[in-house]
Design a protein that fits this description.
Elements lengths: L1 H12 L1 H15 L4 H10 L3 H18 L2 H9 L9 H13 L3 H15 L4 H18 L3 H16 L6 H17 L3 H17 L5
Helix pairs in contact: 1-2, 2-3, 3-4, 4-5, 4-10, 5-6, 6-7, 6-8, 7-8, 8-9, 9-10, 10-11
């Protein structure tokens, strides 16, 4: 009760400080608890920060919770952030996971159009997100096999992915191998992914 009263009082006296505190909390929690971090970014009304958190942590969010949570966060972003290329491709993956194939295709097409005008650093970030989304977006076994190649390429880069994202990428590849019935490789990758996810605190 005292905490709630204190927050209400601070909100009336210094709303700018409240937003800054939420912004700091969002940055601090971005890797440890992406969902809570995104909530703080929304409370700060810092939609650019919320977009960055969702774009960089969507796969970890999906593994910790589910794609519905990621979908809900994406849909809370107002324009123009809702038209961000990475957000569109993440949302496409969420919709494909939910079985909405046509919606996923439309969102993917919009994402690729938006990505065409990105600066090199932004394009690199989009390409990583797109590569990790491809296995989810694949419509059939041939498409899934093809989608695994960009993920393998990312994992082959020594500095291509950070710890949590690398753990998620290994899981994505193992999950894909399981779907195409390559059991031995799937078991090896999923075992590695479990160890990596535990090390990164993704299975808490």
């Amino acid at each position: 009760v005292m905490v709630q009263a204190g927050r209400a009082l601070l909100g009336r006296r210094d709303p700018a400080l409240v937003r800054e505190l939420h912004r700091r909390a969002a940055r601090y929690l971005a890797s440890a608890d992406p969902y809570e971090a995104a909530q703080h970014a929304f409370l700060a009304r810092d939609y650019q920060l919320a977009t960055a958190i969702i774009g960089s942590q969507w796969l970890a969010l999906a593994l910790r919770n589910d794609f519905e949570i990621v979908d809900e966060l994406c849909c809370r972003l107002p324009a123009p952030w809702s038209d961000d290329a990475e957000i569109l491709i993440v949302l496409a993956a969420c919709r494909r996971s939910a079985g909405a194939a046509e919606s996923a295709k439309a969102l993917s097409a919009r994402a690729l159009v938006a990505a065409a005008s990105l600066k090199p650093a932004e394009r690199r970030s989009f390409d990583v997100t797109h590569s990790l989304a491809l296995p989810v977006l694949a419509d059939d076994e041939d498409g899934l096999i093809a989608a695994c190649a960009p993920v393998r390429a990312l994992l082959a880069e020594p500095k291509g992915l950070d710890g949590p994202m690398r753990a998620c990428a290994v899981f994505m590849l193992g999950w894909s191998m399981m779907r195409i019935r390559r059991g031995q490789e799937a078991v090896s990758l999923l075992s590695e992914a479990t160890l990596r996810c535990q090390a990164e605190g993704l299975l808490d």
